[in-house]
Amino acid sequence: MNRSALKKYAPQARLDFIEAVTLRTRRLGLDPAMSVSVEQTGDVLLIGGQPFPASVAKQRSELARRIQQQGFNAVIEALAYTWFNRLVAIRFMELKGYLSHGYRVLSHPQGQQPEILDHVQHLDLPGLDKAEVIRLKTAGNQDEALYREILLAQCHELHRNMPFLFEALDDATELLLPDNLLRTDSPIAHLISEIEEADWQEVEVIGWLYQFYISDKKDEVMGKVVKSEDIPAATQLFTPNWIVQYLVQNSLGRLWLMANPGSSLKDKMPYYIEPAEQTPEVQAQLDTLIKVRVNECGGTLNPESLSVLDPACGSGHILVEAYNLLRAIYEERGYRLRDIPRLVLQKNLFGLDIDDRAAQLAGFALLMKAREDDRRLFDDADNPPHLNVMAIKESYGLPDEEMAQVIINAALQIEGGEAFHAGQLFGGGQLETQHSSGLTVLDLRQLIKLFEHGKTFGSLISVPDGLKAKLGKIVELLANVRGQGDELSRSYASQVLEQFAWPASLLALQYDAVVANPPYMGSKGMNPVLKEFAKKNFSDSKADLFAMFIERGFVWCKSTGFNSMVTMQSWMFLSSFERLRFNILKGKAISSFVHVGYNSFPELNSKIALACAFVIGAEHFPGWRVVFSGLNDCEQSTDKGGRFLARHPEDSFVKAQDSFESISGLPISYWLPDSVLESFRNNRLVSDVSVARIGMATGNNAEYVRFWHEVSISCIGFELDRDEAAKSGLKWFPYAKGGGLRRWYGNCDSIVNWQSDGYLLQTKKHPSGDRVWGHNFNLNEIFKPALCWTVVTSSVPSFRYHGAGYIFDAAAGLLQEKDGEDIYSIAALLNSTSSARIVDAINPTLNLHPGYLGALPYAHVFDSSYVRELISIHKDDWDSSESSWDFSINDLVGLSAGEHSRLSDAWSLEESGSKSRHDRVMQLEGENNKFFNSVLGFDGCDLSVPVEPTIFLKNKNLATSELLSYSIGCMMGRYSLDEPGLIYARSGNIGFDTSRYTKFPADADGIIPITDESWFVDDAAERVREFVTVVWGADTLVENMEWLVDSLGRKAGESADEAIRRYLSISFYRDHLQTYKKRPIYWLFSSGKQKAFECLVYLHRYNEGTLSRMRMEYVVPLQSRMQARIDKLNDDINSATSSAQQKALQKRKDKLTKQLEELRRFDETLRPYADQRITLDLDDGVKVNYGKFGDLLADVKAITGGKED
Questions:
Q1: What's the CA gap between 986 and 990, in Å, rounded?
Q2: Which domains, and CATH codes, for the chain?
Q3: Per-residue pLDDT tens over the stretch 69-115
Q4: What is the largest CA-CA distance in the chain?
Q5: Measured between alpha carbons, how far is 971 from 973 in angstroms, rounded to an integer?
Q6: Is-contact 1168 1185, C-beta < 8 A?
Q7: CA atoms of 387 and 367, how far apart (whole Å)
Q8: DSSP code per residue over 52-87
């Protein structure tokens, strides 16, 4: 089957059918947006001046009523899919040869007009006027009208066996059969041409077409609160066939094998899992239970007694697979093949869905499977095949009291033998009248109102016990009235019977197997009505619709039955499903479990839909053992069905069901070794030795949080306790926010406004005014040493030590020791591969909340000095970067031997030191992992967890770019070669002390030009040369500059000066933005694309006179210099002795001319900004301040347009 073709065709088909039905609706004057005259004259109905038969009036009125009740768009959508479904069904049947007359209705074997048009004289279809057909055929120009009559007659004939899909004669829907069906661009033509005939061989094509048909609608509603009418689109998902086979074979098939141990059926079930071997005691209990089921049938399990329910049947994929297995069961018992289909449809298979169109296709798919086995299935007009597949309807808005009264009165009249007329109803209030069956009006009203929100609650509707006991009598009464009442009572009885009584009967039954791919919808997507229903009726599973279906599934199960479903894997682990897990682990028996994980639904091409499939018995047995198949560790692109069939030993796990009780929260972590599960029982937990908490949520990080380098260093308080911080008068304090993967120490780059003990944060109200915006202040824990981690991460969990002085963000979390436990010992455990493996087992999600940490088994490290060493190494590594507020000096500069030394020698030392640190971390972490593997039960296990250190080996390119960044910092006065550490990072150039920069003087104004040639003596490239000379000496300058540019990546033929200027112009600012996380401290003012003038301005030295100085010292003089250079080039061009020389000079002149034009425009923009004498409040942060200069600055959008953390 070419699914790509189906995927391309079906969404467009939906649009095409909607358009075609809409056009037909407008032609009939039914579009409320149009005003069309309607007038009946004799046998003619004139609509907008166009003639139609008068018989159309009744059908048109019915459509008008539906449009008024349901809305135009809803009716159009419904009728579009109705005709899509019908034509798809006819297409399937014509290609399979299932139509009674044997002709193709939509196509022709030779690609001509529909074959049936060649045989009109032989047709005998319901409602088809042969004389009219001959007249239209012989007219020669009435093929469209003829074809319309034939197609409608074909639908009428199919109604007999498929009333759920094809309506009766003169139904209103036939009015909206699209026009122009024989055109080459008609919906029928596209259906024929875009799907190859070979793709119609299996009935599975119906399900795929439906899935793709609704895909656009699904995309529209996903991620939103879903309206009731959109729930089908939001929740439908086509189940891969291998999963369907697994579900059916291990529920229905397993029951059959348990009752018939000698059956050969197992050989026909490739996805069947052999059950785990049980203890003799458990096996005896299981055997007793099966005997109960077998004895219900008189000593041997009768195939006709088997029952399978799919409560969310969609297009019938699961029911079709169940049909295949049931057929094999019947055949094994010796039934004739031609007798089997009707038995299976009538006695064994039951399906429900809230989506009418899906239920239609499910019923059709089952009939097609049955037709394969019984070619006479549709031949008996008096005995059409019976189906138990139904769409759940909604009774909201129906006159339930009137309907019930009409029906009961009709039943009473029929029982008394009197003629009944609905008008009699209103003569004498018979609300409490009781029928001889004991039924009253109230009983029928209760049934009708049960489905008030049928399209929202669907199969989750529970039939009250009192009503359940009366359903048989209700069905009988309704059938009698439908057959013998007057027109109104027959209509009401038929509606209540088909839409409410029959579905209620299915909901009230119990089944041998409940098999489903239930809808997936978290509580955030539920509308208020559904959310309240979930809260009231499914308190243990209300977090998601699929979980509610799991819970409801056990109600449908017989005591010997199986609840077999494929769902999202989240219920295996998340705390919101803990009660559901408890109920299953304590009250049921998991027969088999397949953890599909990634690539569960390949058509979605999504990592998000991580699924599990399971079969769970309704009864619990102490000591029960479960077979698990773990496919989640395979490559994401793996064919999971093929992998499952291969039965790799490493994918199979057998666990005692009660073993999961040893883990807090009862996660179904089947892959953990028994020795690890034992460690949960025998060891203390992390929660016994520490307290983990969610950190503070400011409610508005854009207002309260900055990177430390954005504000004046004099306003930040480091290493203070809470009392000292409150008294300091300082505004900003270190703030742990999580960050990327890094163990032991690091990610220390944020600060938070906690001025006056966080008064503003603790008092400022949310915009709604009903609460304080911030929360989780942890007042007794802040400023104390703690471990933190990144709460939301897709990588291995990593934990970092923070000493005194920190506040912790909600994205980081904080963990502090208690009862005198060693915080370093706890850090050792949490950063071990054993811990990572267990965390993944009990919480394989992106969110690592404190409760999961507390659930980990704990083992104490008696000598934690190696942990202190690891923290020290990682702190030194962190502090070697400018990102750290404890940065001291660039490594290469610190390793310089002074005059006459070489950069290459400094690099060799740095490279060697980096490797030594890396290797030492590898050694210490390896020993740490080995210890915890041993004490927590992982000895001998392949943990499949990365153990690479989170400090990285330095590379030459990065080291060189860091050196250049440091040199810029020394030029700006941020750093100095005279003394280590941060020298100036205050505000407004206030307090800048030039005496601290004697070896390498800082720039006088904090403005460093970046130019492609030497226009200024203090431009960045010139000062880099000066910097290298001061650090390593003049004797080795050339050699060092060559090493420098080679390390950066020099282009062929480039001089050292050209390479440095190119890096500074093109790459430096990009690297700077990355280092400072798009909150730069050196701001790049740029004239534009031609780079006529660019300069860096140090944020902390900027003042209201900076722009004026930039203009007068650089921009204005540069214009004069450029003009003089252009004049000189003109003279040189005129005196050039060769055309090549002249061409080169002209090229240089053209470039300078463009640059000068750009520079003049820049000057015109710069002048008014300089006149404004703009001041900055560094507390506002770079994002706000950077935006004050319009287009003068580079990368404005990247810096000011990003979302705050």
A1: 7
A2: 3-201 (no CATH), 232-392+512-671 (3.40.50.150), 400-450+462-507 (no CATH), 685-935 (3.90.220.20), 959-1030+1055-1200 (no CATH)
A3: 888 998 999 899 999 999 999 999 999 999 999 999 999 998 889 99
A4: 125
A5: 6
A6: no
A7: 8
A8: EETTHHHHHHHHHHHHHHH-HHHHHHHHHHHHHHHH
